[in-house]
Amino acid sequence: MPKNYRALTKLRKQQFERVEQELAVVNGKLQSLLAQKEALRADERAMTIPASGMGRALGAILNQKRAIQSALEMLQQQIEVTKQHKYALETSLKEAHVAYEQAKSIESQVIQRVIMKRKRAEQGLLDEIASQRFWRDRNGEKKEPM
Length: 146
Description:
It is built from two helices and no strands. By secondary structure, the protein is mostly helical. Helix 1 (about 1-45) runs antiparallel to helix 2 (about 55-140).
């Protein structure tokens, strides 16, 4: 019976570790997206509109700024989706942790019950041996050396 609980505990631990690894991957992806966002913002701040000059240069710079803005918007959407996924994984991680701890507790209780059952059986055997010796000694039978 404890073997079944060991398998369950092992399974719950694997599930917990899998969710934990997925969360680490999502955290890394989120950090990467945030770094990309900051890099795009730095590029956008680095672009300056010329005070004087050709209209073509001004048009090119404005087009680049628009392209950076659209890239920032797409990146922000990816960040939001990744954050939602992260929160979902955090919830799953909490649930997996609770399930793993419950499985460990149940396994521990089952093992304790098995140990207590064996102790009672051993105690019963020792009591039987002691009562046999008592009655044998009382009836005057020959004592066995210990």
